[in-house]
Amino acid sequence: MSSPFQGLKVIDLSQIYNGPYATYLMALGGAEVIKIEPPGGEPLRKRGVVGGAALPFAMLNGGKASVVLDLKTEDGKAALIDLIRTADVIVENFAPGVMDRLGVGWELLHAVNPKLIYASSSGYGRDGPYAAFPAMDLTIQAMGGVMHTTGFADRPPVKAGPAMADFFAGIHLYGAIATALYHREHTGVARRVEVSMQDAVYASLSSSLGMYWSTKGESPARTGNRHGGLAESPYNVYPTSDGFIAIICVGEAHWRSLCGLMDQTALADDPRFSSLKARVDHMDEIDETVSAWTIRHSKAELFERMMAAKVPCAPVRTLDEVMHDPNMHARGSLVWQEHPDLGRIVVQQTPFRFEGVEPVGITPSRPLGSDTQAVLAKHGHV
């Protein structure tokens, strides 16, 4: 069977994480993705001079052709328009208004190719009072409530470790493009689609928002590693003899199994812990009891015993352990790649699986502009 996006042509003007992740998923879905960068390259490529910052570019831009165009020149704009004539999708995540100021905005490109889906992502959207605000992952985490809900009650707010606002937006952008393609297939109408980073993170606040509404508008304190809505217990990260382990008991069966593992079966019927509400009301005692047990054992021993008892848990793992995860490598979710500049690296395959469709092979990210002449000649621009 052919790949889902085979035959689809995508013009990728996006940069950093947000848009490039959406177009990377499209490339791994079989689309021809032509990445267009300004002279000197996009900002993420330039970060390669600092530490290990070259790896993210390689992770998000494999499977794409590399073309350099200066859209501030007439020839650069003409070359882009030639590419657009036969394209299905264009993706950009510039600040609102940049493409119009360059003279290659939605109206012009849609007139050149009425079948073109124009997809954009920005921090706050292009039509609200925040449209002109500059935005990055850090500022969206702050503005969007993520930072307020992350950390411990007695300490300042902290950002989430991963670039979640960027990647949430990238996933939503991919979904918006796929939806627009479906709509075009059934109606013949190609639309402009947009994803704001602020919009993309809101749903992730659901546990904290539940607490906010249940207390009639009282802003909940940060809960550290406890449940964001303080609605589950045990639910925390507990110390072990060699690190930490995350444990959550959803329902009575999990709690009773954990009590058995701790050799404290009587706790299951103790009035302080015999229901979810009671456990939540006494979560400090729960956490002290569980911690006193976990600290006496290693992560591996606890994980093995709790998996056998079907108690949800996981050791807190390092980046090295995650990068070498046996499950992800066995499933082909992570693959080793020989990169011409970086050597042997690990890159991620698409999380999407289609029955009967083999994953697309991931070619390494290309040197800046290495495909410019070949791509432009193919599309009639000399």
TrEMBL record:
SUPFAM superfamilies the record matches: CoA-transferase family III (CaiB/BaiF) (SSF89796)
Listed Pfam families: CoA_transf_3
Any GO MF annotation of the entry: CoA-transferase activity
Region of interest (Disordered), ranges: 363-382
Domain of life of the source: Bacteria
Segments crossing the lipid bilayer: none
UniProt keyword list: Transferase
Classification via PANTHER family: SUCCINATE--HYDROXYMETHYLGLUTARATE COA-TRANSFERASE (PTHR48207)
Full protein name: CoA transferase
Organism, scientific name: Brevundimonas vesicularis (Pseudomonas vesicularis)
